[in-house]
Each structure stands twice: as C-alpha cells, then as structure tokens.
Amino acid sequence: MAITIVVGNFKGGVGKTKVSVMASWELAMARGKKVLLVDMDPQGNASTLIARSTGVTEINTSIFEGFQNGSLKECIVEVTDNLHMIPAQVSFKNFPKFLYANVKEEIDQVSYLKKLLDPIRDEYDYIFIDVPPTISDFSDNAMMAADYVLIILQAQELSLEGAETYIKYLQFMADNYDADIQVAGVLPVLLRPGGRVDMSTIERAKEMFGEDNVMESVIKHLERLKAWDVTGITDNDMHDRKAHQVFLDVIDELEEKLAQFEEAGKYE
C-alpha cells in the first residue's frame, strides 16, 4: 500500500510544488518506484510541469471531475510507466462549494479525498499531494488522506512562521477529526547558500521542531530549477545532473526516515 505524503507550509512561494514534483519524478524515474502525484491546487502548476516535462500536450480530465463522479480512477494520467498524476484545473476552485452542497457530515467533507484515494492506494509505492498554502478544504482533505507531511522551510522568518502554524494545525486536525498524520521531516530551502540569515533560520527551526526532524539535505537556490519551469525537466548536461542530485539526496534521506517510522509503527 502506498505511503501518502502531503508537501506543506502555510506560506506561498516556498517551493512546495517544485518539491512535490521533483520527489515524485526522482522516485519514479531514478528509483523505479510507482508514484502517483495528486494535484490539489486549482492553479495546477504541478500538473503543468509534469505535462511539459513528459510531452503531454493536452489534459482532458481533472481531479474535480473525479470528486464529482465519486471515483479518481478515471482521472489518472499515466505520464510514464512509473509516474502517474491526477491533474488539477481552474474549475477545481469550486471544490468547497461542491463539498457543502453534496456531503452533509463535516467529517465526510474533510475525508472526501481519503475516501477516493483508498481504492487505488495498493497500485502505488508513493502518493504525493500538492496543495495550496492555505487553511482550507484543500489542505484539510490532504491532511486527512496523508500518512506523513513533508514541511518545506524556506530560510526566512515568514516561512518559519508558516511551518509553525502548519504544525499547530496538524494538531488541530488530530484533535478534532482524528487525523493520523506524522511529520516526516522539515526540508530547508535556502535563499542564499551559506548566508547568515539562512543558517540562522535553520538553527531556529532545529530548536523549534527538534534537530532530528530538520533534514540534513537542503534545496539550494539553483537557477536550473527556474529553467525547468520553462523547458520542462531535462537531463542534458552537468547543470541538470547537479539539480537532479539535490533531489536524489532528498528522497534518499526521506525514504530512510520513512523506513524508520514504518518499522517503529509495527511495534506500537
């Protein structure tokens, strides 16, 4: 059964979508895992980047159609043998209206994604969920559906506050809806590698979240990542390979952490 991970922070622009896409990409392409990327953001940036990177020129389905039909199976786009995605489109902004009009019980509203993911979990090793940086029905459903959260921490004060708020909201979801989700790690994203502010923010994060929870791997400010937004993900030269290696290091550390959590869970 798939390990399901939501990538989160309640501050926008910290790199959540890029990490969601690249973690899914490297696990599928480099590590041979069967991965499903679920785009829960109406902007659909994750869907666009995956499509651009794999030559998909037209997407004729969306996650909102799956919610309306009560099944996500028909919304899965098989971009490669190992990498599948459930894309989002702008119409998905109407998701809250759909929930309140069609799902009566509050617990069923926040658990709707989980209900629809459960029948397809056995088909994958990993499911990644990309969400908007808001406290909303989108993030509620992602938290309820996920086993773990990977918190993205851009090395600045507002991102640190967004991460702290995210942790508090996880506790709120656990207290009010019995959400069973654990923090897999806090992944630093550096604005200026080696910069004093960046390093200070990471040290404060270690004090706040625990040193073991802040990952040793970091996402450095790589220009190649910006280029991929335009060209799609490529592997043509040393700069591409350097960028890929950053994310390979991240997923290797993440898998190691998850294996420890899963093993500990067997004896609880």
UniProtKB/TrEMBL annotation:
Domain AAA: 4-182
Residue ranges of coiled coil: none
Entries under SUPFAM superfamilies matching the protein: P-loop containing nucleoside triphosphate hydrolases
Name of the featured protein: Cobyrinic acid a,c-diamide synthase
